[in-house]
Amino acid sequence: MTDATVRTPDEKPLSATAGVTFATPPAAAGETAIVIRNGNLWYGDNQALHDITMDIPAGQATAFIGPSGCGKSTLLRCLNRMNDLIDNVRITGDFLVNGKDINARTTDVIEVRRRIGMVFQKSNPLPKSIFENVVYGLRIAGVRDKATLESACERSLRHAALWDEVKDRLDSSGLSLSGGQQQRLCIARAIAIEPEIVLMDEPCSALDPIATLKIEELIYELKSQYTIVIVTHNLQQAARVSDKTAFFWLGRLVEHSNTSDLFTNPKEKHTEDYITGRFG
Amino acid sequence: MSALRELLRRGDPAIWLAGTGLGISILMIGGMIGLILWNGLGFFWPGHLEEITLKDGTVLLGEVVAREAIPAPGTPEHLKKRRLQMKLGNRDVGSADFRWVNEDDVASRQIPQDAVYVERREYGPFIGRPVKLAEGDKELAAGAAAVLAQLPALVDKAVSDRDAIRTLERDQIGAINYRIEQLRLDQRSLDLKAAQTPGVDQSAAKAEIDQQLTGLQTEYGELDQRLKKTREEAERVRVTLKASGGEEKEMPVLDVYRLFAPNQLSVTGRAGIYASRLWEFLSGDPRESNTEGGIFPAIFGTVMMVMLMSVIAVPFGVLAALYLREYAHQGVLVRLVRIAVNNLAGVPSIVFGVFGLGFFVYLVGGTIDQMFFPESLPTPTFGTGGILWASLTLGMLTVPVVIVASEEALSAVPRSMREASLATGATKFQTICRVVLPAAAPGILTGLILAMARGAGEVAPLMITGVVKLAPDMPLDSLFPYLHLERKFMHLGFHIYDVGFQSPNVEAAKPMVYATAVLLLLIVILLNLTAIIVRNRLRKKYRTSAFS
């Protein structure tokens, strides 16, 4: 692992300017960002993930596909410990981010979540102004300087391709935006804290085709700077935005390879059946 | 048969049943409020004075307040004949306040133009005819018309005289008394200290206090002289009135609160009297063992008690709910605690009162007295009922309501909102402070509203923890330290009970009971309305979606 980052010098990570530093440096492009070894997860007595082993490369977009209830969202939520919120969840196996086990007792869950941002299926802006929504994570981290907050807000909104639409009404409520705008606002909020990895849980499932298109373009843009893991039901979307695709079925990882290979030349019969629409 | 089944299937009878239930509920509530409003607000309207001559030659002058059928069970007359209830006043010249008159006994009824209705300091109202007006030995006017022409100005002057006397008595002499009392307490605490640590010379401090005491006593003497002189001067103007029985009664105009000839009044004149009576009721002090005058101290006591109670109950309730909902492991223990809290909300209020008396008043208050106010013992300072203990007791009573409502509000905050906050690296505590609590605020306010509605209406626990029939001083005044939480206070709910059931003159007090009930309702509604408006503002602000 090297200290090299994908960012150009003038695009210093905001976390550095804000005084937020991490113990381990982020993975560079081409390396492995997330390592999962023998991951199992139970909801009570019900096993939702079976023995997942996979590597997620840094600086690329990885798509999780599969029929409903196959565990892809559950796996995604394991990656920033969102499953902590749910009672009766038991996880075994190793989930390593930059070589560090995120489930270890010594790991600070807050740092994990700061390094791994998340965008949810249903857009969930906070009942605050647009500005406050974007800089929420920075305020939480203790950033008070107004100029820093403002520049972070503008940069994040530009990244999220929302700046031009809301720059004149940053003080109005985040809830006053349309569905697609709200989702892009949530993306801006997630990237405002300059995470290394952005997890997206079906970010377009509640959006119309135009808004979906905008968000897909955005994901395409973002993957030059962030490692992206996206869960989607839309196979075309997976094909369009991702470099790697993983197909899950009944809580098991069936196939994980380059997107182009998986869609044109699937090795497993289940994968082929699914992508050709024979089931699921 | 199949038509009936079809009807049942469609559910129309269920709708009728539900509608009827709602209608009956509204009717009952509307009826109750209507009755209270009618009786309570009608009380202040000045009615006509009638002179009724009975067949035996008795002449009665007064207001006809009721007319009802005479019950005579078993005879053919049963409920056929009517009788009148007359308000006669003149308690001090040997008349009963109220009298029932059978219509059969009435020889004639007329409305005399010169009859006057007098509200005065003592003995209830006087109804009669004015005879003469005198200042000392000098006669100012004689005859009804002349007296009536001169009186309004004099009654106005009496109002300002009374104010001046009151300022002297209450504010100036009261302040001096308060300071003298404080000095006495200082003296006693010096004595106590001397007994504990003999050998320390405290004569200098004592001499200082003695000197101050002498100064204050001189001041007191001067003010007392001034008070006597002012009163003597004011009492020189006297009015003489004649009752319907022929007895004459002379009284100082200073004691007259309101004097008018209702039969000469136009509707606007009556409305003026109505407004002035209503204002006196809202802003004045009680007279005649609470059956007359105003109830401002009770309004003030009620509002202050409810506010103190809210200040106590809401923080505790919200903190408890936060722990129960957000931090505690949702196991058997938490479920038991939750059941206990729910049951606590149903415990009879008098039980809380008994607890408040035993714990707050005797234990906590008694301990405070021994530690901080030993100089005034055996007279208790905090070791007796007071507004603080009453508020704390009611706070305990209402905390379960706040907890239940807050818990519900907290659990209604969507998980997506918490996830949004946590996913950006917020701790649980930050999430609760910045997202969950603001979003739950409207629901928490609903809890406050329920708590206030319950607290404002409670009387039983207050009766043993600090409410009194007549409190000489309010818990908030201009004397240091301004807020006297140890003081006893008056409360509208207790006032209703006291006036209605403990009063020597039940007939005269009855309308007062209704008027006070109207006021209590109004205050509860007003407090609730304030909280509801605040809640709706918050709701608008923290709406979770643009469409809901």
What is the top-level CATH class of the largest domain in chain B? Answer: Mainly Alpha
Architecture (CATH level 2) name of the largest domain in chain B: Orthogonal Bundle
Q: From the coordinates shown, what is the CATH architecture of chain A?
A: 3-Layer(aba) Sandwich
Structure classification of chain A: alpha/beta
First-last Cα distance of chain A: 40 Å
Tell me the helix content of chain B: 55-70%
* Quaternary organisation of the protein chains: heterodimer
Sketch the major β-sheet of chain A. Answer: 6 strands, mixed
Order of helical and strand elements of chain B: HHEEEEEEEEHHEEEHEEHHHHHHHHH
- The total count of strands of chain A amounts to 10
CATH topology category name of chain A? Rossmann fold
Mean pLDDT across the residues of chain A is 84
End-to-end distance of chain B, in Å?
45 Å
Strand order of the largest sheet of chain A: 6-7-8-3-9-10
Tally of helical segments of chain B: 14
Instruction: Tell me the number of structural domains of chain B.
Output: 4
Largest interface (C-beta under 8 Å): A-B, 27 and 26 residues
Strand content of chain B: 5-15%
Q: What overall form of chain A do the CA principal axes indicate?
A: globular
Description of the structure:
The complex is a heterodimer of chains A (280) and B (548). Chain A is α/β, with parallel strands linked by helices and 280 residues long. Chain A has one domain: P-loop containing nucleotide triphosphate hydrolases (Rossmann fold). Chain A has helices at residues 14-17, 72-78, 109-115, 130-134, 136-140, 146-159, 163-166, 179-192, 209-222, 235-241, 259-264, 269-275, and strands at residues 32-43, 46-57, 61-65, 89-97, 100-101, 116-119, 197-201, 227-231, 244-249, 252-258. In chain A, α8 runs parallel beside α9 (209-222). The longest helix of chain A is centred in the middle third of the chain and has 14 residues, at 146-159. Chain A starts with 13 loop residues before the first helix and ends in a 5-residue tail after the last helix. Chain B is 59% helix and 13% strand. Chain B is flat. Chain B folds into 4 domains: 2-42; 50-119, no CATH class; 138-264; 297-541, MetI-like (MetI-like fold, Orthogonal Bundle), CATH 1.10.3720. Chain B contains 14 helices and 13 strands. Chain B has 548 residues and is of the alpha+beta class. Chains A and B meet through α3, α5 and α8 of A and α10 and α11 of B.
